[in-house]
Amino acid sequence: MDKAVKIPGPDHPITIERSPLRVIVKAGGRVIVDTTEALSLREASYPEVLYVPRKDVDMTQLERTSHQTYCPYKGECSYYSIPSGGQKAANAVWSYEAPYDAVASIKDHLAFYRDRVDSFETPNA
């Protein structure tokens, strides 16, 4: 069965903008991300999500998992764990590796569950 694909609109808006914030993510006693190039994704009534460029993530600290989810607005979502972060860091990171056209700018970006890492800092907020 084909999965539904939905286009953002007035009933379910999605905006993506360059964030002015510096983002620092730490897990397992290590800095995993330190970037000033995050994207801010706002979707409908959900809280803002900061997506950080893959190039600014220490990918050696992440391990791809078999967990996947699907969003009809964004596409298939892949997950990563942070082994050095222990059990709480399981599936702590997600990425839309082939996002739908409406959100194409989040390709090559990752997002972090803030409660699954040691710290998620935005020092210039």
TrEMBL record:
It comes from the Bacteria. It comes from Caballeronia novacaledonica. Residues 25-114 form the DUF427 domain. This is DUF427 domain-containing protein. Transmembrane segments: none annotated. Pfam families: NTP_transf_9.
